């Protein structure tokens, strides 16, 4: 008996060792094992706001009804830890004035808390729901914990209001789950959740962090929050049948995410990081406003299209199949403007205007990518993170050359594609150690690798000007000789001895 009391943390029912219901004094038995007269005495002493202690108790429909009737639907401090509800448990419209705990409870039938109001904290840790669970329209003024809960049928959290933090870490939803229209005033963490069927998070308002790290969406998910206060994180998440994601005005962390099926990401003034993502299926990222993708490092994809997003700070180093990217209407970083002086050769430096990758900015040591960037003074590798603020080492120039060459096929803008071809040749020229480097240097100086026709025309104009000048000087000299012919030589004077 003592060991059993220590195991559960309260004095248990004396009827049998198998019953762990909280004993009521002076009877020494739980409410489920009280005689009718004894139960009438206990229930008769209850009033609105009374504390309820049914820890470890087997709660039938009649017992629950009598308690809710006696308290007029207004419960005080409520404890249902390890309780077992054998029939439908309906708490619809109830008011829980104190903290509420259902930890490790078991619901064999429906559990309904529709429009219930919790004025304190509420905990459903490790609860097992064998049927449906409905918390539609509930309001929780304190913290809410649903860690490691399990719901076998539909789970409804729609239109709920959670004023402070809400934790669903390790929870399992075996059937349909919806959080549509709910409001989370603080952080909402779904780390390690398992969703067996479709889950919907549309028009959800997250006041703080929305964390789905290492979550598993076996049948896909639709995540379209109305607002996210801090950050939306799906780091290490897995979606087995596609993922539809719409985010507005916040950073989106999709690092190491794995998606089987179609991935659709819509960004509205949001920044997304896809570093290390694995995408086994068609994927699209659409941007509006100031939307950015900040990293595609180590991404493995079968077909990824980025449309109308800012890639000026995006790192591509290590991407597995860059030729499978399609870049439509995207913006990139550009070379620095103006003429610069350096204390090394060559002392005078300037760059032709072209689109570049942030990885080249990091390698060259330019302080930041994009228009107005301040150039570094060297042509060699820069310290890590020079372009994006990350700690990633910049790629070697020969890898940059290959990256430019493989990316250019997917760029819709011909001018940008030409700039990428120029960048590839530039990386080869700057790092070549063979005698052919002089030919590359000449090719760069004369025609910009055949991609800067203005440079060729400039050389042609300079050559033509020099030739014309030479002809003019020659013509002037010839005319001067005709106007002033040379005098005949004076014959020498001979003197007779």
What is the share of helical residues? 10-25%
Class derived from helix and strand content: alpha/beta
Alpha-carbon distance between the two ends: 161 Å
| Regions with little confidence, pLDDT below 50 for 5+ residues | 1-6, 368-390
Beta-strand content estimate: 25-35%
**What Rg, in angstroms, do the CA atoms define?**
38 Å
Q: What is the mean pLDDT?
A: 84
Number of DSSP strands?
46
Largest sheet: 22 strands, parallel
As for the number of domains, it is 3
Shape: rod-shaped
Determine the number of helices (DSSP H or I, runs of at least 4 residues).
8
Description:
This protein is an alpha/beta fold and 497 residues long. The chain has three domains: 49-283; 311-431, no CATH class; 434-466, no CATH class. The strands form five sheets. The chain has a 22-stranded parallel sheet that branches. The protein has a twelve-stranded parallel sheet with strand order 1-4-8-12-16-20-24-28-32-35-38-40, with no helix packed on it. 38% of the residues are buried.
Brief rundown of the structure:
Helices cover 21% and strands 26% of the residues. The chain has 497 residues and is of the alpha/beta class. The chain has a 22-stranded parallel sheet that branches. Strands 1-4-8-12-16-20-24-28-32-35-38-40 form a twelve-stranded parallel sheet, with no helix packed on it. An eight-stranded parallel sheet has the order 3-7-11-15-19-23-27-31, with no helix packed on it.
List the topology elements:
Layout: H1 2-8, H2 36-44, E1 52-53, E2 58-59, H3 61-70, E3 74-75, E4 78-79, E5 84-85, E6 89-90, E7 95-96, E8 100-101, E9 106-107, E10 111-112, E11 117-118, E12 122-123, E13 128-129, E14 133-134, E15 139-140, E16 144-145, E17 150-151, E18 155-156, E19 161-162, E20 166-167, E21 172-173, E22 177-178, E23 183-184, E24 188-189, E25 194-195, E26 199-202, E27 205-206, E28 210-211, E29 216-217, E30 221-224, E31 227-228, E32 232-233, E33 238-239, E34 243-248, E35 251-253, E36 258-260, E37 263-268, E38 271-273, E39 278-288, E40 292-295, E41 300-307, E42 325-328, E43 333-334, E44 339-341, E45 348-350, E46 355-356, H4 358-364, H5 397-407, H6 414-431, H7 436-447, H8 453-483
Parallel strand pairs: 1-4, 2-5, 3-7, 4-8, 5-9, 6-10, 7-11, 8-12, 9-13, 10-14, 11-15, 12-16, 13-17, 14-18, 15-19, 16-20, 17-21, 18-22, 19-23, 20-24, 21-25, 22-26, 23-27, 24-28, 25-29, 26-30, 27-31, 28-32, 29-33, 30-34, 32-35, 33-36, 34-37, 35-38, 36-39, 37-39, 38-40, 39-41, 41-42
Antiparallel strand pairs: 43-46, 44-45
